[in-house]
Design brief:
By secondary structure, the protein is of the alpha+beta class. It has two domains: about 150 residues, no CATH class; about 100 residues, no CATH class. Helix content is about 55%, strand content about 20%. It contains eight helices and nine strands. Strands 1, 2, 3, 4, 5, 6, 7, 8 and 9 form a nine-stranded antiparallel β-sheet that branches. A hairpin with a 5-residue loop joins strand 7 and strand 8.
């Protein structure tokens, strides 16, 4: 039991397993410490009936942030659970959906929570759809035929990958939708070691279509490789996990919290990209920044919203 005490056990064991001596990543105490600090802040700045729900939110946001940072995915099961807790929180503590002003009753709070969820989910969904239209394809051309292959996953939790010109792209980044297609203009195609002629190869999430129209299930393939003169790679401007996460944030903090979190997260992401020198077109997990934006709103950011509305008030009256 004492080996599982958050942070303290890791320090006591000096970052190594008590039985085998293998190194335990510093990431574990970092996650535990971050969660504990969030719990402490919620208890200090909010009444108990609100702090309990914020504990759930903090735990979910920390988990989602680290999962998204590692795998570029956000588990929808976590965001759906969080949305339900956000609605319940609005009933128990009506100030949640509109921390900048509060609600007069739990019924009004429930309505505001629903509006917030819809604003977060459908608002960001629209951004994703527009982004797909604008940036939904990445075209690559090569002066000489370039080798490509489908690479088997290294572990059980890893995805199949498409590798070309030294770049490895996970399967879940290629096929976010049923309509997504990876199109390769090939000089040569090798299916299970057998060479086929060149032409247009179409790869979908579960099958491939050869230039002659023959189709093969990807699950039944032992290997697939070849050379390419050009390739069109499907991609998303933003993942659908971010859409669900934005809905969860809206369920807790209403539409005003959605606007603030989205604006603040964009600023955080821009600063991180500049500091990390992440160029345009490179993938950057957005979930952690949405989480930061939501927590910024909860722990005082809403006061900026109040100040902003008070500042605009005299201007509207002119």
């Amino acid at each position: 039991m004492w080996l599982n005490i958050p942070v303290l056990s890791w320090l006591w064991l000096r970052g190594r397993c008590a039985k085998c001596g293998c190194e335990i990543s510093v990431r574990y105490p970092m996650v535990e410490l971050l969660t504990a600090l969030g719990f402490l802040a919620a208890w200090k700045f909010f009444p108990p009936q609100a702090a309990v729900f914020l504990w759930v939110l903090v735990a979910l946001l920390v988990a989602i942030s680290f999962i998204d940072a590692d795998h570029l995915i956000i588990p929808v099961s976590l965001t759906w659970a969080g949305s339900a807790v956000g609605v319940l929180a609005a009933i128990v503590w009506p100030n949640f959906p509109r921390m900048a002003g509060g609600c007069d009753s739990w019924r009004e709070a429930l309505i505001q929570s629903g509006i917030g969820w819809a604003a977060g989910f459908f608002g960001l969904w629209l951004v994703v759809e527009l982004g797909k239209l604008a940036f939904g394809k990445k075209a690559m051309k090569f002066q000489t035929p370039t080798a490509w292959e489908l690479k088997e996953p290294a572990g059980e939790s890893d995805p199949l990958s498409f590798v070309i010109d030294g770049e490895s792209i996970p399967w879940w980044d290629l096929f976010s939708r049923k309509s997504d297609r990876l199109i390769i203009e090939t000089g040569e195609i090798r299916v299970d070691g057998k060479t086929h002629g060149g032409g247009t190869l179409v790869i979908r999430e579960t099958e491939i279509e050869l230039p002659n129209g023959a189709k093969h299930s990807i699950e039944k393939l032992q290997s697939l490789s070849g050379t390419a003169t050009s390739v069109v790679i499907p991609r998303e401007a933003m993942g659908f996990g971010d859409v669900h996460l934005m809905g969860m944030i809206g369920a807790f903090f209403g539409w005003s919290g959605v606007l603030f979190a989205l604006f603040a997260s964009s600023i955080f992401a821009l600063v991180a990209a500049l500091i990390g020198r992440i160029g345009f077109g490179r993938q950057l997990p957005f979930g952690p920044f949405l989480a930061m934006g939501a927590l910024t709103w909860a722990f005082g950011g809403w006061r900026l919203w109040v100040w902003y509305l008070d500042f605009l008030g005299p201007l509207w009256q002119r």
